[in-house]
Amino acid sequence: MKFPNAAKGVKKIFTAEILSLIAALLSIVGIAMMIITRAAEESHAENATVVAGLGTIALLAAAAIIILIAGIMSLVGIINASKDDGAFKAALIAILIGVCASIVSGIFSQNSTVQSICQIVQNLMNIFSTVFVIQGISNLAVKVGNTQVASQAKTILAIIVVIYVLSLIASILVVVFGGQFASVTAGIIAVVALVLDVIAYIVYLSLLSKAKKILA
Asked: Which of 29, 40, 101, 148 has the lowest CB atom count within 10 Å?
């Protein structure tokens, strides 16, 4: 095994992305139930409101826990892989900036403007970290002589950037509408953003799977 650290790291990143995909799917269902809750409130259907509301809380709470686990696993994977390629170090820096934004968001939890800015920064850092990981995979593929995977990495990178930018725009629109729970419109936009994220996860996972094989 030529790059043992990267091989170990990519495996962890792959597992983390599967968990993130599961969390995104749970979030889609949870927000869809939130929309149902809003509709039920307008129609004064109390039973439906209670059921949908509890379902939303449970699903989003589960998604949050899974995302936390996935985030830790992905961080460990990137730290491992960074020992074999510099692009993963850039991804690590992007993640740390995102963590700082999250901390600032927690400190200024009562300031909606700071919250919105921090959320946008976190989304951007998520995009950057993914871009750098893909670049790292491309670099390693070239080093092991697999030009096919290196070429595919560049194509997938372009696709993911487009998807993430669209998802980021949708997330910004959610902020403009006042947050995911402020209105049905915001909820629908949030679902659109999550659907785009799911597509990105699937495309990204296909590349990580190939990377695992060439590094094994």
From this structure: 148
Secondary structure element (H or E) that encloses residue 83, with its range: none
- Read off the pLDDT band of 196 (50, 70, 90): confident
Of the ranges 17-21, 78-82, 182-186, which one carries the lowest mean pLDDT score? Answer: 182-186
Q: How many CA atoms lie within 13 A of 1 on its CB side?
A: 11
* Average per-residue pLDDT for the chain: 82
| CA atoms of 152 and 138, how far apart (whole Å) | 8
The model's confidence at residue 94, banded by pLDDT at 50, 70 and 90, is very high
Residue 184: pLDDT band with limits 50, 70, 90: low
The DSSP result for 159-213, as a single string, is HHHHHHHHHHHHHHHHHHHT-TTT-HHHHHHHHHHHHHHHHHHHHHHHHHHHHHH
In angstroms, rounded to a whole number, what is the distance separating the alpha carbons of residues 190 and 200?
A: 15
List alpha helices for the chain, DSSP H.
4-42, 46-81, 86-107, 112-143, 147-177, 184-215
Indicate the length of the chain as a whole number: 216
CA dihedral 100→101→102→108, nearest 10 degrees, is: 110
Question: Residues 6 or more apart from 64 whose CB is under 8 A from it?
Answer: 23
CA distance 48 to 53: 8
Name the nearest CA neighbour of 146 among 135, 154, 138.
Answer: 138
Distance CA 110, CA 199 (A): 33
